Amino acid sequence: MASIIEVKGLSKTFKDIQAVDGLSFSVSGGEVYGFLGQNGAGKSTTIRMLLTLIQPTAGSISILGKELAHHRKEVLSNVGAIIEKPDLYKYLTALENLSMFARLSGIHLTKKELLQGLQRVGLAERAESKVKTFSQGMKQRLGIACALVHNPQLIILDEPTNGLDPQGIADVRNLILSLSKNDGKTVFVSSHLLSEIEVMADSMLIIDRGKKVAEGKVSDLLNPSDTLVALETDNDERTMNFLNATEWSKGIQQNGRGLVLKMHRREIPALNEDLVRQGIQVFSLRAKHSLEDYFLTLTTANQHVDAYTA
């Protein structure tokens, strides 16, 4: 599918700080594209350049096949975005907010069309409720409805699940997936919640200190044949003796904090069955080849205790 975003050699310098350094990437139409990096990696600076909120020091940005620097108005008319938290009028209803954003976009929508927009994000039943009564997750979904009011082809979301509870995160995740899979929208989503990007994204880009360190299909980058499985049983010594006498021995990894095996993800159920047949009680089998592990191997976040704050 044709590229919706094409970035080449993008750089941004603030005095003596190189925020973005020669960044190049491509986003295909209709996909959810995850944008990852720890704090200070250059994610927000990149997104602001994509939206012409700041000007690049060097490089080029093409969106929907047009050079952003020369076709700003035309390009941005087909882009919807939320940077951090959506700006909503808390003393107006959801319907009034959406109507106002439509008018600001130069669009006149009927009440039926506005309600359809709220239905799309699961808020039709709260159309007449004031935004001040909404949870943070509901506000985020209303913000996405406002970003969609002019029916853009590309949606850019900066940390859309930040500060949400588990239900709010799930609601926004399902909405993003629906926009891509059901509506054919391209969604460029920045997030520090690595597990969410792993579930949502078709492709991803990881940057560190303003530079690209990895880009590609999530399924290719997270090779299932290289899954690390952390094993916890009632008797590690007995478990190790059993594993060493079987084909599983070839996958045993050196680890001072417990038993870890390297295998294909499909082999995990068979390992569990073999252990149970030996009368070994399995307390947990945890696949560790996740986006978090991959992220930590590539970025300076491995210097920090908690990758999820990165």
Explain the overall architecture.
The structure is a single chain. The chain has 310 residues and is an alpha/beta fold. The protein folds into two domains: 218 residues, P-loop containing nucleotide triphosphate hydrolases (Rossmann fold); 66 residues, YebC, transcriptional regulation domain (Alpha-Beta Plaits). The protein has eleven helices and 14 strands. The protein has a six-stranded mixed beta sheet with strand order 6-7-8-3-9-10, with helices on both faces. Strands 2-1-4-5 form a four-stranded antiparallel beta sheet, with helices on one face. Strands 12-13-11-14 form a four-stranded antiparallel beta sheet, covered by helices on one side. Helix 3 crosses helix 4 and helix 5 runs parallel beside helix 6. The longest helix is centred in the middle third of the chain and has 16 residues. It is globular, with a radius of gyration of 23 Å. The two termini are 32 Å apart. The C terminus is likely disordered.
Strand content: 25-35%
- Average pLDDT across residues? 87
Beta-strand segment tally: 14
Shape: globular
How far apart are the first and last residues' alpha carbons, in Å? Answer: 32 Å
Q: What does the radius of gyration come to?
A: 23 Å
* CATH homologous superfamily heading of the largest domain: P-loop containing nucleotide triphosphate hydrolases
The CATH topology of the largest domain: Rossmann fold
Query: Order of SSEs, N→C?
Result: EEEHEEHEHHHEHEHEEHEHEEHEH
State the domain count: 2
pLDDT below 50 for ≥5 consecutive residues: which ranges?
A: 301-310
How many DSSP helices? 11
CATH domain class name of the largest domain: Alpha Beta
Please state the second-level CATH architecture of the largest domain.
3-Layer(aba) Sandwich
Helix content: 25-40%
Structural class: alpha/beta
> How many strands, what sense, and barrel or not for the largest sheet?
6 strands, mixed
GO molecular function: ATP binding; ATP hydrolysis activity
Domain ABC transporter: 5-234
Protein name: ABC transporter ATP-binding protein
Keywords: ATP-binding, Nucleotide-binding, Transport
